[in-house]
Design goal:
With about 550 residues, this protein is an alpha/beta fold. About 40% of the residues lie in helices and about 25% in strands. The chain contains 19 helices and 24 strands. The strands form six sheets. The protein has a twelve-stranded mixed sheet with strand order 9-8-7-10-11-12-13-14-18-17-16-15, with helices on both faces. β11, α14 and β12 form a beta-alpha-beta unit. The longest helix is centred in the first third of the chain and has 21 residues. The radius of gyration is 23 Å and the shape is globular.
């Protein structure tokens, strides 16, 4: 009988899980022993930029046209685009102009299509797909993991050890640009089956950087859900210690609401004069600083590298008030890291887009009920080792994209495309109203704390189903103190009316139907420990998956 285990939103055979674990265990030794470290990271990045067109065409040839079941092959045939047509376009106009022409011809994938929620639909075409339809057939897939789903249980992804080597040059330049090279590192990130932290532990270990602590919001044990997740962590810990002399710490379980042990450790390092590079989800970093203030402990001097959520001014201020510095990164598990903090930023989250690895297309997108289109970001895979194969895939994010020479090491290497004020529109639709990321975050992180007290992470909107009806709750942390729920509700409705397109109509409906409710609880987290501004409860997750 075939035995299956649940992994993310896909049933994966035990045989496939064991095979991935074996590939990982077998590949770890040569990765740690033989993978070359670039002696000149600037030259390495420039070489990658010079070869990006040929790398893209090789990926298209092997990953799309050589695969009979590729959904992209169907889309390209639908658009009448041959392999020779694409090659001629790329050589004549460049990758980005080619991607735009393909997009206009219908060669793109919406976020719902990419997640397998709906079939790919174009005039005269309907193509059923699942999330695994976009797995990269060129990748070896050493590590099996899941994305940090907020509306679903997450999507299965395969991560190749070979793909990590392409991160080396950019990672070294990134640390140099932000004066973080050589700092001991600590993590507060989920353990496997999330691969995000494990990936960076592997990268830094090969580059010789010391990872001194790994705290995790999820249980890392071998008997926890996630197939071989515990064995993977054990193998990594043992393998790095034996092979490279850079021991990887075993993850210590530390839930989001129990940050004190990590705070006390950071305070000890501050007293010792040791500056720590702390890799954490934005809201987790904020939590550490809040707890330090509540305990009267000094954790100043450390550098936070924040991920997974928007780094907003309100959240950054909490870190600055604690005497810490902050940089950020932009990435997706499906695509890997796609942006790194600029060393001379012109905005809080100013990123260098890693155009060596990914193609970027920004397309105006109309949102129902919203007066202005947003610049929706679409990604394309330029390398054969990527976890997923992407061709004009919608991310659900938008931001301010520009070209500029900044003077930091990443810019000197030729990475001149910048992105900042990165927000998400896909997760901000609820109960008939579309929220804009910037407006919703300002309400939750600035306006409500100023009026009622608390911190930027103490407020959250939650969508849920109750008695077959959709309700929207404003979740307020009990730490905020006593509140008049009716007064808070009235204030929030007035603010939403003022801040959202069509707000008067929808808030009138919400008043009449009692759609908006106030709940006193800690904000909800996703499976990957993110605190989304609009969280969708599990029953809604199942309905939309």
């Amino acid at each position: 009988m075939l035995v299956t285990i649940a992994w993310g939103d896909t049933n994966v055979t035990l045989w496939n899980d064991l095979a991935a674990g074996w590939r990982y265990a077998r590949g770890l030794a040569p990765y740690m022993r033989d993978t070359p470290i670039p002696a000149d990271p600037v030259a390495a990045i420039r070489a990658q930029l010079a070869s990006r067109e040929s790398a893209f065409l090789d990926t298209v040839r092997g990953g799309i046209f050589a695969q009979a079941d590729s959904p992209y092959r169907v889309l390209l045939q639908y658009a009448g685009a041959t392999e020779q047509d694409i090659a001629a376009l790329v050589r004549g106009a460049g990758i980005e102009a080619t991607l735009r022409q393909l997009y206009d011809a219908g060669v793109y994938v919406t976020l719902d299509e990419f997640k397998g929620r709906v079939p790919i639909t174009r005039p005269g075409l309907e193509l059923p797909v699942t999330s695994s339809s976009f797995d990269n057939p060129l990748s070896k897939g050493h590590l099996r993991g899941v994305t940090g789903g907020s509306r679903t249980k997450g999507t299965r992804v395969l991560l190749s050890l070979d793909d990590l080597t392409g991160e080396f040059a950019g990672s070294l330049l990134w640390l140099q640009a932000n004066r973080a090279l050589g700092l001991p590192q600590a993590y507060w990130r989920p353990a496997a089956p999330s691969t995000a932290a494990l990936k960076w532990v592997l990268i830094w270990a090969r580059l010789g950087t010391s990872v001194v602590r790994w705290y995790t919001q999820t249980h890392p044990g071998p008997l926890e859900p996630g197939g071989l997740s515990g064995l993977i962590v054990h193998a990594t810990t043992w393998g790095l210690t034996a092979l490279a002399g850079h021991p990887a710490p075993y993850p210590r379980y530390l839930p989001t609401d129990a940050a004190e042990p990590m705070v006390r450790w950071l305070a000890t390092e501050t007293r010792r004069g040791v500056r720590i590079y702390i890799d954490a989800i934005v809201s987790s970093a904020v939590r550490l600083c809040i707890v330090a203030r509540e305990l009267g402990l000094d954790i100043s001097g450390h550098l936070f590298r924040t991920v997974a959520e928007p780094l907003t001014p309100a959240k950054a201020q909490v870190l600055y008030d604690a005497g810490c510095d902050v940089i950020s990164a932009y990435g997706l598990v499906d695509a890997g890291r796609i942006g790194s903090s600029c060393g001379t930023p012109n905005a809080l989250d100013d990123m260098h887009l890693l155009t060596t690895r990914t193609g970027f297309l920004q397309v105006p997108k109309e949102l129902a009920g919203w007066p202005q289109p947003v610049g929706a970001i679409h990604l394309t895979t330029l390398r054969p080792t990527a976890p997923k194969l992407l061709l004009n895939v919608e991310t659900g994010d938008y931001g301010v994209m520009s070209e500029r020479q900044c003077g930091c090491t990443l810019g000197e290497a030729g990475l001149t495309t910048h992105l900042h004020t990165i927000r998400n529109y896909e997760k901000l639709t609820s109960a008939g109203m579309h929220f804009m990321g910037a407006d919703l975050l300002e309400l939750l992180e600035v306006v409500l704390p100023q009026r009622y007290g608390g911190h930027p992470t103490d407020y959250q909107f939650v969508e849920a189903e109750e008695s077959a009806q959709t309700v929207l709750k404003l979740v307020v942390s009990p730490s905020v103190g006593t509140l008049d729920a009716a007064e808070v509700k009235g204030f929030v409705l007035r603010e939403l009316e003022r801040r959202t397109a069509g707000g008067r109509l929808m808030t009138d409906i919400w008043r009449d139907s009692d759609t908006l409710q106030i709940e006193r609880a800690q904000p909800y987290t996703t499976g990957s420990a993110k605190i989304q501004p609009l969280h969708v409860m599990a029953n809604r997750m199942r309905a939309s998956s």
